[in-house]
Amino acid sequence: MAQNIFDCKLPNDEGYFGEYGGSFIPPELQTIMDEITEAYHKIRKDPDFIAELTDLYQHFVGRPSPIFHAKHLSDKYGTDIYLKREDLNHTGAHKINHCLGEALLAKKMGKKKLIAETGAGQHGVALATAAALVGLECDIYMGEVDMVKEHPNVVRMHILGAKVIPATHGRRTLKEAVDTAFENYMKDPVTQFYAIGSVVGPHPFPQMVRDFQSIVGVEAREQFSQMTGKLPDNLVACVGGGSNALGLFTAFMEDESVAMHGVEPAGRSLDAGENAATMTLGKVGVMHGFKSYMLQDEAGEPQEVYSVASGLDYPSVGPQHSYLKDIERVKYSYIYDKEAIDAFFELSREEGIIPAIESAHAVAYALKLAKEPNIGTILINLSGRGDKDIDFVVENYGKDYGILS
Ligand SMILES: *Cc1c(COP(=O)(O)O)cnc(C)c1O
Questions:
Q1: 11-59+95-210 has which fold?
Q2: Neighbour order of strands in the sheet with 137-143
Q3: Which terminal residue of the chain, N or C, has fewer Cβ atoms less than 10 Å from its own Cβ?
Q4: Which ligand 1 atom lies nearest to the CA of residue 359?
Protein backbone atom coordinates (compact mmCIF):
# COMPACT_ATOMS: atom_id res chain seq x y z
CA MET A 1 0.00 0.00 0.00
CA ALA A 2 1.35 3.38 -1.00
CA GLN A 3 0.36 4.94 2.28
CA ASN A 4 -0.78 3.16 5.41
CA ILE A 5 -4.59 3.30 5.56
CA PHE A 6 -4.38 3.05 9.34
CA ASP A 7 -2.30 6.21 9.69
CA CYS A 8 -4.46 9.07 10.99
CA LYS A 9 -4.33 11.54 13.89
CA LEU A 10 -7.93 11.52 15.05
CA PRO A 11 -9.77 10.47 17.16
CA ASN A 12 -8.07 10.79 20.56
CA ASP A 13 -7.79 7.79 22.92
CA GLU A 14 -11.38 8.25 24.14
CA GLY A 15 -12.70 8.26 20.60
CA TYR A 16 -13.34 12.01 20.32
CA PHE A 17 -13.06 14.13 17.20
CA GLY A 18 -13.07 17.53 18.90
CA GLU A 19 -16.21 17.39 21.03
CA TYR A 20 -17.89 14.67 18.92
CA GLY A 21 -17.90 10.90 19.14
CA GLY A 22 -17.09 9.12 22.40
CA SER A 23 -18.99 6.16 23.78
CA PHE A 24 -22.39 6.51 25.46
CA ILE A 25 -23.41 2.94 26.24
CA PRO A 26 -24.35 0.78 29.25
CA PRO A 27 -21.35 -0.15 31.47
CA GLU A 28 -21.62 -3.89 30.73
CA LEU A 29 -21.32 -3.14 27.04
CA GLN A 30 -18.43 -0.73 27.61
CA THR A 31 -16.27 -3.65 28.77
CA ILE A 32 -16.90 -5.41 25.46
CA MET A 33 -16.31 -2.21 23.50
CA ASP A 34 -12.96 -1.74 25.31
CA GLU A 35 -11.98 -5.25 24.22
CA ILE A 36 -12.87 -4.45 20.62
CA THR A 37 -10.87 -1.20 20.82
CA GLU A 38 -7.86 -3.02 22.19
CA ALA A 39 -8.07 -5.80 19.60
CA TYR A 40 -8.47 -3.23 16.85
CA HIS A 41 -5.44 -1.22 17.95
CA LYS A 42 -3.43 -4.42 17.91
CA ILE A 43 -4.46 -5.64 14.46
CA ARG A 44 -4.21 -2.25 12.76
CA LYS A 45 -0.45 -2.40 13.29
CA ASP A 46 -0.13 -6.12 12.54
CA PRO A 47 1.58 -6.68 9.15
CA ASP A 48 -0.12 -10.08 8.77
CA PHE A 49 -3.57 -8.57 9.19
CA ILE A 50 -2.79 -5.73 6.78
CA ALA A 51 -1.45 -8.24 4.23
CA GLU A 52 -4.54 -10.43 4.56
CA LEU A 53 -6.93 -7.51 4.14
CA THR A 54 -4.93 -6.08 1.24
CA ASP A 55 -5.02 -9.47 -0.48
CA LEU A 56 -8.80 -9.67 -0.10
CA TYR A 57 -9.24 -6.10 -1.36
CA GLN A 58 -7.31 -7.08 -4.46
CA HIS A 59 -8.54 -10.57 -5.25
CA PHE A 60 -12.01 -10.67 -3.71
CA VAL A 61 -13.27 -7.09 -4.04
CA GLY A 62 -11.39 -6.32 -7.25
CA ARG A 63 -9.36 -3.36 -5.97
CA PRO A 64 -7.98 -0.97 -6.93
CA SER A 65 -11.21 0.38 -8.38
CA PRO A 66 -10.45 2.57 -11.41
CA ILE A 67 -10.85 6.29 -11.83
CA PHE A 68 -12.85 7.14 -14.92
CA HIS A 69 -12.65 10.46 -16.76
CA ALA A 70 -16.27 11.30 -17.61
CA LYS A 71 -15.54 13.03 -20.93
CA HIS A 72 -19.08 13.73 -22.06
CA LEU A 73 -20.01 15.39 -18.80
CA SER A 74 -16.67 17.22 -18.79
CA ASP A 75 -17.35 18.63 -22.26
CA LYS A 76 -20.92 19.50 -21.41
CA TYR A 77 -20.02 21.36 -18.21
CA GLY A 78 -16.66 22.76 -19.29
CA THR A 79 -14.56 21.29 -16.51
CA ASP A 80 -12.94 17.90 -15.96
CA ILE A 81 -15.09 15.46 -14.01
CA TYR A 82 -13.81 12.10 -12.77
CA LEU A 83 -15.45 9.15 -11.02
CA LYS A 84 -13.88 6.84 -8.44
CA ARG A 85 -15.58 3.60 -9.41
CA GLU A 86 -16.60 1.95 -6.12
CA ASP A 87 -19.64 0.73 -8.05
CA LEU A 88 -17.36 -1.85 -9.67
CA ASN A 89 -16.52 -3.57 -6.37
CA HIS A 90 -17.78 -7.08 -5.69
CA THR A 91 -21.33 -6.66 -4.28
CA GLY A 92 -21.63 -3.31 -6.05
CA ALA A 93 -20.67 -0.67 -3.51
CA HIS A 94 -18.08 0.56 -1.03
CA LYS A 95 -19.64 -1.23 1.96
CA ILE A 96 -17.69 -4.44 1.32
CA ASN A 97 -14.47 -2.55 2.24
CA HIS A 98 -15.41 -2.18 5.89
CA CYS A 99 -17.47 -5.36 6.17
CA LEU A 100 -14.38 -7.42 5.30
CA GLY A 101 -12.31 -5.53 7.87
CA GLU A 102 -14.90 -6.01 10.59
CA ALA A 103 -15.39 -9.69 9.73
CA LEU A 104 -11.64 -10.36 9.89
CA LEU A 105 -11.37 -8.57 13.23
CA ALA A 106 -14.33 -10.53 14.66
CA LYS A 107 -12.76 -13.78 13.50
CA LYS A 108 -9.42 -12.87 15.10
CA MET A 109 -11.22 -12.05 18.36
CA GLY A 110 -12.73 -15.54 18.36
CA LYS A 111 -16.31 -14.35 17.79
CA LYS A 112 -18.76 -16.85 16.29
CA LYS A 113 -21.36 -14.65 14.71
CA LEU A 114 -21.65 -11.32 12.92
CA ILE A 115 -24.87 -9.43 13.46
CA ALA A 116 -26.23 -6.17 12.07
CA GLU A 117 -29.38 -4.36 11.17
CA THR A 118 -30.14 -3.39 7.61
CA GLY A 119 -32.62 -1.01 6.00
CA ALA A 120 -32.66 -1.59 2.27
CA GLY A 121 -30.48 -4.66 2.70
CA GLN A 122 -27.22 -3.27 1.26
CA HIS A 123 -25.29 -3.52 4.52
CA GLY A 124 -26.90 -6.91 5.19
CA VAL A 125 -25.76 -8.31 1.84
CA ALA A 126 -22.22 -6.94 2.19
CA LEU A 127 -21.92 -8.36 5.70
CA ALA A 128 -23.42 -11.73 4.74
CA THR A 129 -20.86 -11.85 1.92
CA ALA A 130 -17.97 -11.12 4.30
CA ALA A 131 -19.31 -13.66 6.82
CA ALA A 132 -19.47 -16.38 4.17
CA LEU A 133 -15.93 -15.63 3.04
CA VAL A 134 -14.38 -15.44 6.50
CA GLY A 135 -16.40 -18.36 7.88
CA LEU A 136 -18.67 -16.82 10.52
CA GLU A 137 -22.39 -17.15 11.17
CA CYS A 138 -24.45 -14.11 10.30
CA ASP A 139 -27.77 -12.79 11.62
CA ILE A 140 -29.27 -9.78 9.87
CA TYR A 141 -32.14 -7.90 11.47
CA MET A 142 -34.58 -6.25 9.11
CA GLY A 143 -37.98 -4.60 9.42
CA GLU A 144 -40.82 -6.78 8.11
CA VAL A 145 -41.95 -3.99 5.80
CA ASP A 146 -38.45 -3.59 4.36
CA MET A 147 -38.20 -7.35 3.83
CA VAL A 148 -41.14 -7.21 1.46
CA LYS A 149 -39.93 -4.05 -0.27
CA GLU A 150 -36.36 -5.26 -0.68
CA HIS A 151 -37.11 -8.88 -1.43
CA PRO A 152 -34.14 -9.53 -3.78
CA ASN A 153 -31.68 -8.57 -1.04
CA VAL A 154 -33.41 -10.88 1.43
CA VAL A 155 -32.99 -13.70 -1.10
CA ARG A 156 -29.31 -12.79 -1.58
CA MET A 157 -28.67 -12.96 2.17
CA HIS A 158 -30.38 -16.35 2.37
CA ILE A 159 -28.32 -17.70 -0.52
CA LEU A 160 -25.17 -16.47 1.23
CA GLY A 161 -26.13 -18.50 4.29
CA ALA A 162 -27.20 -15.65 6.57
CA LYS A 163 -30.31 -15.66 8.75
CA VAL A 164 -32.67 -12.74 8.21
CA ILE A 165 -34.63 -11.97 11.35
CA PRO A 166 -37.71 -9.78 10.95
CA ALA A 167 -38.47 -6.87 13.28
CA THR A 168 -42.21 -7.09 13.79
CA HIS A 169 -43.07 -4.20 16.10
CA GLY A 170 -43.88 -0.52 15.46
CA ARG A 171 -43.47 0.70 11.90
CA ARG A 172 -41.43 -2.47 11.10
CA THR A 173 -38.63 -0.62 9.30
CA LEU A 174 -35.03 0.38 10.04
CA LYS A 175 -35.49 1.86 13.51
CA GLU A 176 -37.25 -1.28 14.75
CA ALA A 177 -34.53 -3.42 13.14
CA VAL A 178 -31.94 -1.46 15.16
CA ASP A 179 -33.95 -2.01 18.37
CA THR A 180 -34.26 -5.75 17.75
CA ALA A 181 -30.63 -6.19 16.74
CA PHE A 182 -29.43 -4.30 19.80
CA GLU A 183 -31.72 -6.26 22.13
CA ASN A 184 -30.35 -9.54 20.81
CA TYR A 185 -26.79 -8.29 20.90
CA MET A 186 -27.17 -7.47 24.60
CA LYS A 187 -28.20 -11.08 25.27
CA ASP A 188 -24.81 -12.29 24.10
CA PRO A 189 -22.21 -9.65 23.32
CA VAL A 190 -19.40 -12.15 23.94
CA THR A 191 -19.81 -14.56 21.02
CA GLN A 192 -21.59 -12.06 18.75
CA PHE A 193 -19.95 -9.10 17.00
CA TYR A 194 -22.19 -6.17 16.07
CA ALA A 195 -20.78 -4.98 12.77
CA ILE A 196 -21.82 -1.34 12.43
CA GLY A 197 -22.47 -0.29 8.83
CA SER A 198 -20.99 3.20 8.70
CA VAL A 199 -18.69 5.63 10.55
CA VAL A 200 -21.21 5.87 13.41
CA GLY A 201 -21.85 4.25 16.79
CA PRO A 202 -19.61 4.22 19.88
CA HIS A 203 -15.81 4.30 19.72
CA PRO A 204 -13.96 2.53 18.07
CA PHE A 205 -16.44 2.10 15.18
CA PRO A 206 -16.26 5.61 13.66
CA GLN A 207 -12.48 5.27 13.53
CA MET A 208 -12.37 1.63 12.49
CA VAL A 209 -14.88 1.87 9.66
CA ARG A 210 -13.14 5.03 8.40
CA ASP A 211 -9.77 3.29 8.44
CA PHE A 212 -11.11 0.33 6.46
CA GLN A 213 -12.71 2.68 3.93
CA SER A 214 -9.72 4.97 3.54
CA ILE A 215 -8.23 2.63 0.94
CA VAL A 216 -10.56 4.49 -1.47
CA GLY A 217 -8.74 7.81 -1.04
CA VAL A 218 -5.29 6.25 -0.82
CA GLU A 219 -5.84 4.69 -4.24
CA ALA A 220 -7.56 7.75 -5.68
CA ARG A 221 -4.77 10.14 -4.66
CA GLU A 222 -2.17 8.07 -6.46
CA GLN A 223 -4.34 7.26 -9.50
CA PHE A 224 -5.42 10.85 -9.99
CA SER A 225 -1.85 12.14 -9.72
CA GLN A 226 -0.73 9.60 -12.29
CA MET A 227 -3.54 10.45 -14.68
CA THR A 228 -3.30 14.23 -14.50
CA GLY A 229 -0.01 15.10 -12.79
CA LYS A 230 -1.97 16.97 -10.10
CA LEU A 231 -4.31 16.43 -7.19
CA PRO A 232 -8.03 16.99 -7.78
CA ASP A 233 -9.31 20.48 -6.95
CA ASN A 234 -12.59 19.13 -5.55
CA LEU A 235 -13.80 15.91 -3.97
CA VAL A 236 -17.52 15.15 -3.81
CA ALA A 237 -19.25 12.33 -1.91
CA CYS A 238 -22.73 11.62 -0.58
CA VAL A 239 -23.18 11.43 3.19
CA GLY A 240 -25.56 9.04 4.93
CA GLY A 241 -23.59 7.90 7.96
CA GLY A 242 -20.55 9.16 6.11
CA SER A 243 -18.32 6.14 5.42
CA ASN A 244 -17.79 6.48 1.67
CA ALA A 245 -17.15 10.22 2.09
CA LEU A 246 -14.46 9.71 4.75
CA GLY A 247 -13.12 6.84 2.68
CA LEU A 248 -12.34 9.26 -0.12
CA PHE A 249 -11.51 12.35 1.99
CA THR A 250 -9.07 10.92 4.54
CA ALA A 251 -6.03 10.57 2.28
CA PHE A 252 -6.45 14.21 1.12
CA MET A 253 -7.06 15.75 4.56
CA GLU A 254 -3.68 17.51 4.71
CA ASP A 255 -3.83 18.72 1.09
CA GLU A 256 -5.00 22.29 1.55
CA SER A 257 -5.58 22.83 -2.17
CA VAL A 258 -8.21 20.07 -2.25
CA ALA A 259 -11.75 21.28 -1.46
CA MET A 260 -14.09 18.64 -0.03
CA HIS A 261 -17.87 18.52 -0.38
CA GLY A 262 -20.26 16.26 1.54
CA VAL A 263 -23.76 15.92 0.09
CA GLU A 264 -26.79 15.11 2.22
CA PRO A 265 -30.31 14.19 1.11
CA ALA A 266 -32.83 17.04 1.20
CA GLY A 267 -35.54 14.50 0.29
CA ARG A 268 -38.83 16.12 -0.71
CA SER A 269 -38.23 19.35 1.19
CA LEU A 270 -36.36 20.84 4.15
CA ASP A 271 -39.46 20.49 6.38
CA ALA A 272 -39.10 18.15 9.38
CA GLY A 273 -39.65 14.50 8.44
CA GLU A 274 -39.18 15.11 4.71
CA ASN A 275 -35.38 14.77 4.53
CA ALA A 276 -32.24 13.54 6.29
CA ALA A 277 -30.17 16.73 6.03
CA THR A 278 -28.48 16.31 9.41
CA MET A 279 -25.72 18.89 8.91
CA THR A 280 -28.06 21.54 7.57
CA LEU A 281 -30.90 21.13 10.05
CA GLY A 282 -29.56 19.10 12.98
CA LYS A 283 -28.47 20.01 16.50
CA VAL A 284 -25.75 18.48 18.62
CA GLY A 285 -26.93 15.56 20.74
CA VAL A 286 -26.33 11.94 21.70
CA MET A 287 -27.92 9.01 19.86
CA HIS A 288 -26.94 5.37 19.17
CA GLY A 289 -23.97 5.63 21.54
CA PHE A 290 -22.17 8.71 20.19
CA LYS A 291 -22.30 12.51 20.13
CA SER A 292 -22.83 14.30 16.84
CA TYR A 293 -25.18 16.55 14.89
CA MET A 294 -28.55 14.85 14.66
CA LEU A 295 -32.18 15.33 13.78
CA GLN A 296 -34.28 15.12 16.93
CA ASP A 297 -37.91 15.77 17.76
CA GLU A 298 -38.96 17.88 20.74
CA ALA A 299 -38.66 14.89 23.10
CA GLY A 300 -35.06 14.34 22.01
CA GLU A 301 -35.98 11.18 20.11
CA PRO A 302 -34.59 10.52 16.63
CA GLN A 303 -36.76 12.35 14.12
CA GLU A 304 -38.51 10.61 11.26
CA VAL A 305 -36.24 10.89 8.26
CA TYR A 306 -36.83 10.37 4.58
CA SER A 307 -34.82 10.18 1.37
CA VAL A 308 -35.45 8.59 -2.02
CA ALA A 309 -32.11 6.87 -1.33
CA SER A 310 -32.63 4.37 1.46
CA GLY A 311 -28.89 4.30 2.20
CA LEU A 312 -28.94 7.98 3.13
CA ASP A 313 -31.92 8.25 5.48
CA TYR A 314 -30.13 8.27 8.83
CA PRO A 315 -31.03 10.87 11.50
CA SER A 316 -27.43 11.43 12.59
CA VAL A 317 -24.01 11.48 10.97
CA GLY A 318 -20.55 10.14 11.81
CA PRO A 319 -18.90 12.26 14.54
CA GLN A 320 -15.84 13.06 12.44
CA HIS A 321 -18.10 14.78 9.92
CA SER A 322 -19.49 17.02 12.67
CA TYR A 323 -15.93 17.96 13.56
CA LEU A 324 -14.99 18.57 9.91
CA LYS A 325 -18.04 20.79 9.53
CA ASP A 326 -17.12 22.90 12.56
CA ILE A 327 -13.51 23.38 11.48
CA GLU A 328 -14.80 24.04 7.94
CA ARG A 329 -12.51 21.48 6.32
CA VAL A 330 -15.50 19.96 4.51
CA LYS A 331 -18.39 21.92 3.05
CA TYR A 332 -21.75 20.18 3.53
CA SER A 333 -24.62 20.77 1.14
CA TYR A 334 -27.81 19.02 0.13
CA ILE A 335 -29.56 17.68 -2.93
CA TYR A 336 -33.31 17.06 -3.37
CA ASP A 337 -34.76 13.73 -4.52
CA LYS A 338 -35.68 15.13 -7.90
CA GLU A 339 -32.18 16.49 -8.55
CA ALA A 340 -30.68 13.09 -7.64
CA ILE A 341 -33.03 11.31 -10.06
CA ASP A 342 -32.10 13.78 -12.81
CA ALA A 343 -28.43 13.00 -12.18
CA PHE A 344 -29.20 9.27 -12.13
CA PHE A 345 -30.46 9.53 -15.71
CA GLU A 346 -27.87 12.04 -16.83
CA LEU A 347 -24.93 9.84 -15.79
CA SER A 348 -26.62 6.78 -17.28
CA ARG A 349 -27.25 8.48 -20.62
CA GLU A 350 -24.07 10.56 -20.94
CA GLU A 351 -21.56 8.00 -19.71
CA GLY A 352 -23.24 4.58 -19.71
CA ILE A 353 -23.00 4.19 -15.95
CA ILE A 354 -26.12 3.63 -13.83
CA PRO A 355 -25.32 4.95 -10.34
CA ALA A 356 -26.91 4.01 -7.02
CA ILE A 357 -29.46 6.70 -6.08
CA GLU A 358 -27.22 7.48 -3.08
CA SER A 359 -24.26 8.16 -5.37
CA ALA A 360 -26.52 10.14 -7.73
CA HIS A 361 -26.75 12.75 -4.94
CA ALA A 362 -22.99 13.27 -5.24
CA VAL A 363 -23.22 13.41 -9.03
CA ALA A 364 -26.04 15.99 -8.89
CA TYR A 365 -24.05 18.23 -6.57
CA ALA A 366 -20.89 17.87 -8.66
CA LEU A 367 -22.78 18.98 -11.78
CA LYS A 368 -23.96 22.11 -9.94
CA LEU A 369 -20.45 22.75 -8.73
CA ALA A 370 -19.12 22.31 -12.27
CA LYS A 371 -21.10 25.39 -13.36
CA GLU A 372 -19.21 27.67 -10.93
CA PRO A 373 -16.44 29.74 -12.58
CA ASN A 374 -12.86 28.39 -12.37
CA ILE A 375 -13.92 25.47 -10.22
CA GLY A 376 -11.16 23.15 -11.50
CA THR A 377 -11.25 19.38 -11.55
CA ILE A 378 -13.91 17.38 -9.69
CA LEU A 379 -13.51 13.82 -8.41
CA ILE A 380 -16.79 12.15 -7.41
CA ASN A 381 -16.92 9.06 -5.24
CA LEU A 382 -19.33 6.81 -7.13
CA SER A 383 -20.15 4.79 -4.02
CA GLY A 384 -22.34 2.16 -5.68
CA ARG A 385 -24.10 0.90 -8.77
CA GLY A 386 -27.76 1.39 -9.48
CA ASP A 387 -28.93 -2.13 -10.33
CA LYS A 388 -30.76 -2.28 -7.00
CA ASP A 389 -32.69 0.89 -7.88
CA ILE A 390 -33.80 0.40 -11.48
CA ASP A 391 -37.30 -1.00 -10.84
CA PHE A 392 -38.08 1.65 -8.27
CA VAL A 393 -36.83 4.48 -10.48
CA VAL A 394 -38.68 3.37 -13.59
CA GLU A 395 -41.90 2.75 -11.69
CA ASN A 396 -41.85 6.14 -9.98
CA TYR A 397 -40.04 8.40 -12.44
CA GLY A 398 -39.82 6.50 -15.74
CA LYS A 399 -42.55 8.52 -17.48
CA ASP A 400 -40.66 11.78 -16.92
CA TYR A 401 -37.67 10.34 -18.76
CA GLY A 402 -39.48 8.82 -21.72
CA ILE A 403 -39.76 5.28 -20.37
CA LEU A 404 -43.17 3.71 -20.93
CA SER A 405 -43.87 0.64 -18.84
C1 LIG B 1 -25.05 2.69 2.24
C2 LIG B 1 -24.68 3.49 1.06
C3 LIG B 1 -24.32 4.85 1.17
C4 LIG B 1 -24.40 5.62 2.46
O5 LIG B 1 -23.51 5.22 3.45
P6 LIG B 1 -22.25 6.09 3.90
O7 LIG B 1 -21.82 5.46 5.16
O8 LIG B 1 -22.70 7.51 4.07
O9 LIG B 1 -21.25 5.99 2.83
C10 LIG B 1 -23.92 5.53 0.03
N11 LIG B 1 -23.88 4.92 -1.17
C12 LIG B 1 -24.20 3.61 -1.32
C13 LIG B 1 -24.14 3.00 -2.68
C14 LIG B 1 -24.62 2.85 -0.21
O15 LIG B 1 -24.95 1.57 -0.37
A1: Rossmann fold (3.40.50)
A2: 163-167, 137-143, 113-118, 192-194
A3: C
A4: 11
What would the pLDDT profile of 195-246 be if each residue is shown by its tens digit? Answer: 999 999 999 999 999 999 999 999 999 999 999 999 999 999 999 999 999 9
**pTM, 2 dp:** 0.96
CA–CA distance, 186 with 190 (Å, rounded to integer): 9
Residue nearest to atom 13 of ligand 1 (CA): 384
Q: Is the CB of 359 within 6 Å of ligand 1? A: yes
Distances (CA, A) of 176 to 77, 111, 230, 293, 341: 44, 25, 47, 22, 28
**CA distances (Å), 185 to each of 24, 107, 196, 343, 396, in order?**
16, 17, 12, 39, 37
Stated as kind and residue range, the H or E segment containing 235 is: strand 234-238
For domain 64-92+214-401, give the fold. Answer: Rossmann fold (3.40.50)
312 pocket-lining for ligand 1 (C-beta < 6 Å)? yes
Burial class of 24 by CB neighbour count within 10 A (0 to 12, 13 to 18, 19+): middle
User: Catalytic positions, please?
Assistant: 95, 117, 383
